[in-house]
Amino acid sequence: MKDKYQHKRLVLFCRLFGVTPQAFYQHNGEETTGIETDLVLKQVANIRCCHPALGGRKLYELLHPFMMEHGIKMGRDALFDLLAQYHLLIKRRRRVIATTQSYHRFRKYPNIIRDMVLTHINQLWVSDLTYYKIKTKPVYLSFILDAYSKKYSAIS
User: Fold this and answer.
1) To bridge 23 with a disulfide, which of 19, 90, 108, 117 should be the other Cys (CB 3.0-4.6 Å)?
2) Has this prediction a pTM greater than 0.70?
3) pLDDT at residue 2 above 60?
4) What residue segments make up the domains of the chain, in order of their start?
């Protein structure tokens, strides 16, 4: 009998104070989410103390059993929103494309064209390797250039 009329008692109680049952439940839920976010943030601090560069997705995987154990219903996106709200997201590192690295143990050849005076075409060819980033991956280009006329001999 008590369970059957509990909702009606809540409606009467809410009318007495001038609030709707929906507002009552929302306010009740806000109190629990505040406690839940504190628990999650403390656990994030514990994990980040050992692993400071741990990203959000991996953090969610580690926190999921903890949240299930404590009855906290929070998805990955909600966790990301919480981390963003408290400035706990890790900044993404830009991937740097590897280009020339001249600090190696192999022989480095001297610059024999430094004092060379060019008088006609096809006397000296120089080559270069460069890259352009197209959408998601780099595209490498190699050029062979005639040093006297500054015209491209080959591009691949």
Assistant:
1) 19
2) no
3) no
4) 6-85, 95-156
